[in-house]
Amino acid sequence: MSDRPGRASPPVWLPAAPILFLLLWSGGFTFAKLGIAHAEPITFLALRYACVLVVLAPLFLILRPRLPSRLVEWGHLAVVGVLIQAAYFGLSYIAFDLGVSAGVAALVISLQPILVGLLAPMLAGERVSALRWLGLVLGLAGAAVVILARMGLEPASVPGLLAAAGAMLAMTGATLYEKRYGGDHHPVSANLVQYAAGLVVVLPIAAIFETMTVDWTAEFGIALAYLVIGNSLIAVTLLLAMLRFGEAARVSALLFLVPPTASLIAWGMLGEAMPALAWAGMALAAVGVLIARR
Asked: What's the pTM value of the predicted model, to 2 decimals?
């Protein structure tokens, strides 16, 4: 196991990672809104991360994966964990709690690939071609069309919009940091460190600023289970693997398909209508992603 990204051979399941990641990540919007209806946002995150660690602990004892051998490796894992688990998810959930709709939040967060494309040449040593930029712009346009067609831009509070923008910046930072400093770590040990770092940050915040009251219902249990297994364990592991074996701008372009895919999942699960214009927007976003990932 090397601490230099890209030295190990790509796993055989990597070609299927984008589709599985997209489905799991997009479904997280629906289940997060279900969970927040029964618990305060940071309390929900703290409970989610505690459950993740409970699931990972026996896997670690059985598999006994290699832990980081140097302090700097621990630090890199912790930074990515705080950026994704505490900052990105925390600010996203706060935005929902402050009245920002899933559509508006998804539109703001989908600006992240544009920012990655601007910063990747400087911070990750990647060159983003003109054709790749065309794909990124088409992807953003398609995501915006879907959101505007299905739910419109509902009025949202300024603090909520700032929280969504902060989530976008946090994911941008995590993407570029992982691409530059990420090591070839076993997913179990990497997730243990990163979720522990996220829990260390969010638990005191929940204890100080929230009541930490949870309405234990079947709906809340289903939402928590999905976010622990599907979102926290599988999707994040796929994301980090794709970042290690791909380019940051190409991986981030997948996020353009999150708003339309999340709308499609909500249509299937909640019966929310999908206008014809939204389907056209999904097609446009798909074309943009195909161009950006070439």
From this structure: 0.77
Mean pLDDT by 10 residues, the chain (294 residues): 50 78 86 90 95 91 83 90 93 86 71 69 66 79 76 65 88 82 78 92 95 94 93 81 67 72 77 75 78 68
Please spell the DSSP secondary structure of the chain, one letter per residue: --SSTT-SPPPTTGGGHHHHHHHHHHHHHHHHHHHHTTB-HHHHHHHHHHHHHHHHHHHHHHH-PPPPSSHHHHHHHHHHHIIIIIIIHHHHHHHHHTT--HHHHHHHHTTHHHHHHHHHHHHT-----HHHHHHHHHHHHHHHHHHHHHT------HHHHHHHHHHHHHHHHHHHHHHHH-----HHHHHHHHHHHHHHHHHHHHHHHS---B---HHHHHHHHHIIIIIIIIIHHHHHHHHHHS-HHHHHGGGGGHHHHHHHHHHHHH-----HHHHHHHHHHHHHHHHHT-
